[in-house]
């Protein structure tokens, strides 16, 4: 008793109300599953309220409603018939006993002695009650848990249960897709799916428990009480009523008490498993510190704590079984004693009626045995159901207007942000009065420090969020809040930086952009994304599985598949969030020529400023505000206080280092002197070094499509405003290094690339 008292004190210390005072293993309930801590319904009104929530899923609707409703009616009809047969089974048993007893008495009267065996031998075979025996066997075949009626009922209910499962699953899945990005960012996907799976299973389990277990058992008890009170006398009815009522009440109370231990046991079991997993995952750390004995000791403590809670849970179950059996046996004893008195002294009952009472009460006992388990399961299932129904209550933040507006087909994809302010948390604004316009066919780049609000601009344009703080987002002059989300998102293509692919084939992932596309269109999109040849090098080609989240592909391959998917969609507006960050320079140039066309409006988020020098306009976002805007050349003129210029110079410094910048200064001064002298010289009159540098400068200008700024002074802020060098070879060549050495370096780089491709091929094959 003292040990049990100490354990109860420990349980109290680890209960949710005492979460601030953890035990020696910490508070296991802190990270316990939430369904263990949810309070199930404890009153009849609460139970009825939960049942009412199930009604929409019980009554079938739709084109198959008639057939399913007929199955529901058939199941309830079998349920009613089963209750009637449960009464007939003990009655037929009584009839067999009475008929056999009557025949025995007749046999005794004929022979006048010899006992029961002699009396039975004198009965003619034709007088044996075969019909009553056959009736009893037939009723037993129909009744009971494994009887024909119960089997038919279970099979007829399967389509109804599948309808319920399908309706809930599909409605929940659609509802989850309609919820806002804000909801999904704040919840774990695995947790949501567990809630859905458990909720669906719980509703089906609750329906089966209530309809086919709890309700029939309570109906059988009520019928038995009424039958004995009317056909025998009130005392038999009271015995049955008191016995079964006490049985059910005791079962519910002890089960509730045992559930407390079971919750603690489950929580400690989770803590034990978590301890084992954590220790094995940190296997090397354990070895580093010779902590094997400590880990074993901690795990042993966790196992002992779990086993102690599990012991008391099983003890409570054993006590429940003892009390249940005692109640039933007391009820049987009282009823049998009363029946014996009625037979011997009062002579108003037969032996068959004695057997009837005994068999009927035993039959009720077998059915009532499941009440405890069903009650506990209903508690657990109500918890899971409530959590799922709470998801249904989650409001849909982004709503379509009652009458959506229609965009003009000839619209070119003009994008306007008009004085937009937005905050994920009201205490911390992200965008403040942001305004800009992107003309149809233009390319607009968003640059700025991390956390300045660039990605938020794309999310607002795609209407993952609305901006209740103020302002409007317009496409072709129409506020996007007036558009249907399907129409809005149908005209926008997005290539995120963190590309996620479905665990399907490459072809499936590209076709996701427009499922009705032909194979030729898929191949054309892949070629434009510079990924077709790479796909064809895989053993399975376009049927290659990409793995979960596309992990079998490299980062650059995933980005190009995502770009192909977006190109196949062929939207009017494309949003690129560092979409080419994982590809090399040559591929990036080809991708930009495919993406940045006058046929569509493009908004680009860039961290590598060299990728957006050709943008029609560049917006510098800082602290949620547009602090600078213009072309690359115009922004580079703001050398004294320009945010863009400082970002550019910082990237140069990061790529070249201070020594590289110093060499750039000297080369820049030499270039300036050379350019001045070049006006008086023939085009081919340059020196060897001048020819090499001039040729390379000419190639870069042709590639960029715009003249370079070559005025460089001794001041660091007057360095030439060219794109940062994208590889060490470019930087070294610009510094006047040895050309042969660079060619050797380039060849080594190509060899490295070939080895990398071979590795990729082997990994893809694997």
TrEMBL record:
Q: Which SUPFAM superfamilies match?
A: ABC transporter transmembrane region, P-loop containing nucleoside triphosphate hydrolases
**Keyword Membrane found:** yes
Q: How does it sit in the membrane?
A: Multi-pass membrane protein
Domain ABC transmembrane type-1: from-to ranges: 73-380
Asked whether the keyword Acetylation is assigned, the reply is no
Compositional bias (Polar residues): 12-21
Q: Which InterPro entries match?
A: AAA+_ATPase (IPR003593), ABC1_TM_dom (IPR011527), ABC1_TM_sf (IPR036640), ABC_transporter-like_ATP-bd (IPR003439), ABC_transporter-like_CS (IPR017871), P-loop_NTPase (IPR027417), Type_1_exporter (IPR039421)
Going by the entry's taxonomy, the superkingdom of the source organism is recorded as: Eukaryota
SMART domains reported in the protein's UniProt record: AAA (SM00382)
Give TM segment ranges.
68-85, 127-149, 203-229, 235-255
Full protein name: Homocysteine S-methyltransferase 1
Gene label: HMT-1_1
